[in-house]
């Protein structure tokens, strides 16, 4: 049987966010999938065209 549940790791154990049908002490195999935050990145320094061009020049190497 395969069931997908959302849970939170509290530093010691995984806590399900919904009720699940398992017996106490039942052995399981746990596959962990991390949820990556897609919050925007706030830059401390504004990115200018000059900086972008500089980075582009640095990324190219001649053969």
Annotation keywords:
single chain; 63 residues; alpha+beta; two-stranded antiparallel sheet; 1 helix; 2 strands; elongated
What is the helix content?
Answer: 10-25%
Instruction: Give the topology string: H per helix, E per strand.
Output: EEH
Oligomerization status of the protein chains: single chain
Q: Could you say which structural class the secondary elements and strand pairing correspond to?
A: alpha+beta
- Outline the biggest β-sheet: 2 strands, antiparallel
Helical stretch tally: 1
Give the spatial strand order of the biggest sheet.
Answer: 1-2
Head-to-tail CA distance between termini: 55 Å
Strand content: 5-15%
* Overall 3D shape: elongated
How many beta strands in the DSSP annotation?
A: 2
Mean pLDDT across all residues, rounded?
85
Low-confidence stretches: none
| Gyration radius from CA atoms, angstroms | 23 Å
């Amino acid at each position: 049987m395969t069931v997908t549940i959302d849970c939170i790791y509290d530093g010691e154990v995984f806590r399900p966010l919904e009720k699940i049908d398992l017996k106490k002490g039942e052995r399981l195999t746990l596959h962990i999938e991390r949820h990556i935050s897609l919050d925007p990145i706030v830059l401390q320094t504004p990115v200018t065209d000059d900086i972008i061009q500089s980075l582009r020049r640095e990324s190219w190497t001649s053969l």
